[in-house]
From TrEMBL:
Stretches the record annotates as Disordered: 1-20
Keywords tagged on the record: Cytoplasm, Exocytosis, Transport
Compartments (UniProt record): Cytoplasm, Cytosol
Domain called Exocyst complex subunit EXOC6/Sec15 C-terminal: residue spans: 422-773
Role noted for this protein: Component of the exocyst complex involved in the docking of exocytic vesicles with fusion sites on the plasma membrane during regulated or polarized secretion. Involved in polarized cell growth and organ morphogenesis. During cytokinesis, involved in cell plate initiation, cell plate maturation and formation of new primary cell wall.
Pfam families the record matches: EXOC6_Sec15_N, Sec15_C
Taxon lineage: Eukaryota, Viridiplantae, Streptophyta, Embryophyta, Tracheophyta
Protein name as catalogued: Exocyst complex component
GO BP terms, alphabetized: acceptance of pollen; Golgi to plasma membrane transport; intracellular protein transport; pollen germination; pollen tube growth; vesicle tethering involved in exocytosis
UniProt source species: Miscanthus lutarioriparius
Protein family according to the UniProt entry: Belongs to the SEC15 family.
Keyword Transport: yes
Organism superkingdom: Eukaryota
A cellular-component GO term for this protein: exocyst
């Protein structure tokens, strides 16, 4: 077959029509074939395509050309490495001679070594025979020594067993050594009889030790239960003594607090108390050490030696649980009031023992185990107390059981047991106890308020003054007044003070028996409750209902509240003294006045009644002549009556009301009068008024300002420097309006600077309404006919401008 030359037509065009030329391999396909052959890729796709086209000849020609190219490359590569191959063969042939020479040298050396080692092998065989003999002799001696040692251990164990329970541990150690030797020895004993004897002795000794220690432990469990009750009684008694010493210390502190200086005797008392406390703690520790735990420790140690430690722990815990359950049955046969001390003492002693076992038992009990026992005991005590407290109707019985339960809680807390649930039960019934006290006090306060006529209290004798004033620290001066003495308060104040003081003393008494924790904090909380929920609520109810109180009675109620503010300070000090809290701490922790709601309500009631009274006098303003030909020479009649009433009221109020309260009331009344004067001008019944009417209102206003200045001097003398401006400031709105109406240039009101300086309290809408009603005296309905062509009054012109501008602004 002829090779295709470069100028020949492609193979795809040979013998093929025009229709099949598109599917024959092209030059691009042949180029891809060459690239694939060069890269070593799979030629399957090219072969399948060539045969699919039915013309494989071009593909075959291309493959043959590629093969020829590869053969040329291989031939070139062989020519390049031919000389290296010949050189390697020569090197191998030269090494063959050297290897033969080395083989002969090694054979000669081996023969020489065999001939020289024969005597040494004979000596080695002799040595091995001698060493085997020596090993047999050593094994015999070791077996003999082992038997002697085991017999000595057996004799020692027998001697310890004859010594009683105190030698059980040493006997067990001896038999343990025998057991270890028999179990872990290098070989069994050569004497089978001795081995059988020892194997039978070991378990027998262990069983004997287990029986003896179990008997001793059972005896200890019986004895410790009887000792626990006495131990609990002693511990609770120590707690009671410690509480008594604390009460004595608080009383001493209270006496020291009342003194101005501390002397050496006070310091000595504190030292005596510290020494007594240390002695009590030592005695408590001696009582705790009075019971013996040695049998328990011995039983635990022996069981651990017998590898029964975990079983003994479970056995101990189960037996203690059974003992605790049986202790709960103490109260089943007798009433709780009679058996509660035995019940609490037994539980206290039980857990004092458990605390010591936990701390010194070396892991016999764990904290979760002790906590589980304590939780069960607390749950039982809580349920028993809840059940019995719910059925108790006598406060003394409740107090007696609460007292002993509190002592139990204090005792167990010293040993680290959580007593929160016990204190919660006591606190729960403490609230119930105080709720009953509050209900009784609420009834007493209501009766006291209902019986009071709210007149000043009269005291004819000094003992009455001491009983009603000095006893509660509500005196305004340390100087004893002359008798008969008219107090600034009514009889309600000392009655309420007696009720609250009695409540404080009852609360402190209950808290001392069953409180626990911060007694003063709890008493202060209940003191706040009686002041807010009882006293404040009762007075607030009285004030809100009104009950037909007059102005003088309302003033007396307000005066009573001022005195009660001093009484509340006495209540806090009295509670602190009973609780042994220094008065310095009470002064630092003083809170707001707890009766401020009723105090504010009383002042609001007084102010409301005074405003109503002022409105009653202001209604007489119907007699004001708004178009008078001449101004009233002495002001309007309503103003004179209001001034007379205020002066009379003030003279009485100065005797009973504190000056700050009186100042607040007068400022509010004067502000109300100022508003009422503005309302006079705005009244729809006033169609117009003239300058003479304004002059009369100005006279009225000057009378009120004179009264305010007179009262301001009283307040300034008492140290209230801001009272003068405050009193005059109450009338500022009415004064600015009158000044505007009397001004020659009313339109100055439109100037922002002047308005801010002189008329800043006026509302422009009110000014617009009032200015439209204002008419000059010379102005009448027909005056324009007679004055036509005359020069217009500048004031009227200014007023018209003001009215026009205000009308546009609105």
């Amino acid at each position: 077959m002829r090779r295709r030359l470069p100028g020949d037509a492609p193979l795809s065009a040979v013998g093929a029509g025009h229709a099949s030329s598109a599917s024959a391999p092209s030059e691009a396909d042949l180029a891809q074939l060459s690239a694939a052959i060069a890269a070593g890729e799979d030629l399957g796709p090219f072969v399948r395509r060539a045969f699919a086209c039915g013309r494989p000849e071009p593909l075959l020609a291309s493959l043959r050309g590629a093969a020829r190219d590869r053969e040329a490359e291989i031939e070139e590569l062989c020519r390049a490495h031919f000389h290296d191959f010949i050189r390697a063969v020569d090197d191998l042939r030269s090494l063959l001679a050297d290897a033969d020479a080395l083989k002969g040298f090694l054979s000669a050396s081996h023969s020489a070594l065999l001939s020289s080692a024969a005597p040494l092998l004979a000596s080695l065989e002799s040595f091995l025979a001698a060493r085997s003999l020596a090993g047999n002799l050593s094994s015999a001696l070791a077996s003999s020594r082992r038997c002697v040692r085991l017999l000595a251990l057996a004799a020692r164990a027998n001697a310890h067993l004859q010594a009683g329970n105190h030698g059980l541990y040493l006997a067990l150690r001896a038999v343990d050594a025998i057991d270890r030797d028999l179990a872990s020895g290098p070989e069994p004993l050569p004497l089978p009889t001795l081995r059988r004897m020892l194997l039978s002795v070991v378990p027998a000794v262990r069983a004997h030790a287990e029986r003896e220690i179990s008997r001793e432990f059972s005896d200890w469990m019986v004895s410790i239960r009887a000792a626990s009750r006495h131990l609990g009684q002693v511990a609770i008694g120590r707690s009671a003594a410690a509480r008594q010493r604390q009460e004595e210390l608080r009383s001493k502190h209270r006496l020291l607090e009342e003194c101005i200086t501390l002397d050496d005797d006070g310091v000595g008392d504190l030292d005596d108390f510290a020494a007594a406390a240390a002695t009590a703690d030592a005695a408590d520790g001696a009582a705790a050490a009075s019971f013996d735990l040695t049998p328990l420790y011995r039983a635990m140690h022996i069981n651990q030696t017998l590898a029964l430690g975990e079983r003994f722990k479970k056995y101990y815990l189960e037996n203690r649980k059974l003992q605790l359950t049986s202790d709960f049955d103490v109260i089943a046969a007798t009433p709780f009031l009679e058996s509660h001390q035995v019940f609490f003492s037994q539980i206290a002693g039980f857990f004092i023992v458990e605390d010591r076992v936990f701390r010194t038992g070396g892991g016999l009990t764990s904290r979760p185990d002790v906590d589980a026992l304590w939780d069960a005991a607390v749950g039982k005590m809580v349920s028993v107390m809840e059940d019995n407290f719910s059925r108790m109707q006598t406060a003394n019985h409740l107090l007696l059981i609460t007292d002993y339960a509190a002592l139990l809680s204090a005792t167990m807390r010293r040993y680290g047991y959580p007593v929160g649930m016990l204190f919660d039960v006591l606190a729960k019934h403490r609230d119930k106890y105080h709720d009953l006290l509050l209900a009784d006090c609420r009834r007493q306060v209501a009766e006291a308020l209902a019986a009071d006529k709210f007149d000043q209290m009269l005291m004819r004798k000094e003992y009455e003054y001491s009983m009603n004033v000095l006893a509660f620290g509500i005196q305004s001066s340390d100087i004893t007044p002359a008798f008969p003495y008219v107090a600034p308060f009514s009889c309600t104040v000392p009655d309420i003070c007696r009720i609250v003081r009695s409540f404080i003393e009852d609360s402190v008494s209950f808290m001392a028996h069953g409180g626990g924790g911060d007694t003063y904090a709890a008493v202060k909380k209940y003191l706040g409750r009686i002041l807010s929920e009882v006293v404040d609520a009762s007075i607030l109810k009285l004030v809100d209902s009104g009950s037909g109180l007059s102005v003088s009675q309302a003033m007396q109620v307000a005066a009573n509240m001022s005195v009660m503010e001093r009484a509340c300070e006495f209540f806090t000090r009295h509670a602190a003294q009973l609780c042994g809290v220094p008065l310095r701490a009470v002064e630092r922790g003083r809170r707001d006045f707890p009766l401020r709601r009723s105090r504010d309500a009383a002042e609001a009631l007084l102010l409301r009644l005074l405003r109503a009274k002022a409105d009653e006098f202001m209604r007489q303003s119907d007699g004001v002549n708004w178009m008078a030909d001449d101004p009233p020479p002495g002001g309007n009649e309503y103003a004179n009556e209001v001034i007379i009433y205020l002066e009379t009221l003030t003279s009485t109020a100065q005797q009973i009301l504190p000056l700050p309260v009186l100042r607040r009331v007068l400022v509010a009344v004067l502000a109300h009068i100022s508003e009422r004067i503005i309302e006079l001008f705005l009244n729809d019944s006033v169609k117009r008024f003239n300058a003479n009417a304004v002059t009369g209102i100005d006279t009225d206003l000057k009378m009120f300002e004179t009264f305010a200045e007179g009262m301001s001097s009283l307040f300034v003398d008492s140290g209230q420097e801001s009272a003068k401006n405050e009193m005059k400031g109450a009338l500022v709105e009415a004064r600015q309006l009158v000044n505007l109406l009397m001004s020659n240039s009313p339109e100055n009101f439109l100037n922002p600077v002047i308005r801010e300086k002189s008329y800043n309290k006026l509302d422009y809408r009110k000014v617009a309404i009032i200015s439209e009603k204002f008419r000059d005296t010379s102005e009448s309905y027909f005056s324009t006919f007679g004055t036509r062509g005359a020069r217009q009054n500048p004031k009227k012109k200014s007023l018209d401008t003001l009215i026009k501008r205000l009308r546009e602004a609105s």
